[in-house]
Design brief:
heterodimer; A: alpha/beta; seven-stranded parallel sheet; 38% helix; B: alpha+beta; three-stranded mixed sheet; three-stranded antiparallel sheet; 2 helices; binds zinc ion
Chain lengths: 222, 115
Amino acid sequence: MKQVKVLTKILAANDMIAAENRALLDSHGICCINLMSSPGAGKTTLLEKTAQMVSGSISLGAVEGDCATSLDGERLSAAGIPTVQVNTGGGCHLDAGMIKSALRDLDLEKTDLLFIENVGNLICPSSFDLGEHHRAVMLSVAEGDDKPLKYPGMFISCDVMVLSKTDLVDKCDFDLSAGKQNALRVNPRLKILELSSLEGAGMREWTEFLEKLVEEKRVEKR
Amino acid sequence: MHELTVAQRILEIAEEKARDSGLSRITGIRVRVGSLTTVVPEALDFCFGFAREDTLAGNANLVIEEVRAEARCNSCGIVFPVEQSFFLVCSSCGSSDTALLKGTELDLLSIEGEI
Ligand SMILES: [Zn+2]
């Protein structure tokens, strides 16, 4: 019997590829946001509306991750966002290797802001660094204001929270201030943006936030 | 079930290290899992059970060391456990200027086997 000490990070292989992805994005001055949420929180709709609003000022790109189908990817392409579809074949998350291959199919020279629309799931995606610069979790008011407490791992791993579907707040049993407070209890550093993709409330703050991130990247590259 | 991915990564690394050390068979693997990793130890153990088939670790035992998350408050200096509902807020003075010390570990610690 022989014992061998190893001490290796189990996701080291993933993290190494993630670092390569980040370096590649940096070299092109691209800001990358990993957008995560439960299924149906409204990620695709938000990106469609964002594309309309920033058209002409920010060149978007997207990597669309889904277990199966390319339905969301088709919606993003129809909205004018160059999109690479990644199907995980039942897998619950994207990993850095999938993003590495997807980046080969995007025109990086023409992209300012890359969204990774992760598989809808509040648990697994948070464990995998993809090479993004920012992690955003989207929580819709249709879901319950205790979600941050139930899935703290996700909320603690993010720097931005998008509180979506605020137009439905009166019809849902969702207390806006409790939802925000719960998120901040889990992670006091979260930047919270409230919006309704359908009715437009909060969308201006969202796109201004994105413009700021893109500008920061541009300055960094210079 | 990202635990399956994690179990497969553990086995890949363990097999590579076993070959480097001249082990023909892996009988035990020890890992460390932090409470903030979203890796559930029971689920990892379950996935490991079938992922190990057809590897050098076919009958290996998986030992999971769980690490509870802790943070340090930069205002008052205390080290406090990171609880389910009060994550990074200091349990003593309420400051949110805190630094995570433990809880995000996901490490392979050692393997045991026969030459
Ligand atoms: Zn304190």
